Amino acid sequence: MSTTVSGKSTMSIEDYLKLPYTIEVIRDESDGYTGWFAKVEELPGCMTQADTFDGLGEMIEDAKRAWIESALEDGVDIPLPRRAEDYSGKFVVRLPKSLHKKLVATANQEGVSLNTYVNVALSQAVGRQMTKVSNATQAARS
Fold first, then answer.
1. pTM for the whole thing?
2. In 3D, which of 28, 23, 22 has the Cα closest to residue 51?
3. How many CB atoms lie within 10 A of CB 78?
4. First-to-final CA distance of the chain
5. How far apart are CA 29 and CA 49, in angstroms?
6. How far is CA 135 from CA 52, 87, 132, in A?
7. What is the mean pLDDT of the segment spanning 74-99?
8. Which of 76, 66, 74, 77 is nearest to 17 (CA)?
9. Does the pLDDT value for residue 72 go beyond 60?
10. Are the C-beta atoms of residues 37 and 25 closer than 8 Å to each other?
11. pLDDT at 4
């Protein structure tokens, strides 16, 4: 799907708003403020905040609309959402030799490959983070 033809958008604002952009939501408890922060990953600088989780949806839509309207007016290309196919399941990580050594030793102790050990460790870390977010969401709704 092309976003521009000869510098002119081939999609309307409503077309862009229907696309499945990636939204990151974070509970914000800074400077005595308690609320929610959200940003659209593919649209640089497109972000908003709300006092309640329930109010965040409307704020995200307003922020996306304003970002897209501004980009169209300025003739800026609007990025399309990332597709799941864009992720191969592989990535390279640079880390200190000492950490690499500890990871290999721990994987050997567990009787698994380094790849399996790192996969499980990352999955557990993401699971813990998701649990924190879920607990915060439930608490906010209470």
1. 0.55
2. 28
3. 18
4. 42
5. 12
6. 15, 28, 5
7. 85
8. 66
9. yes
10. yes
11. 42
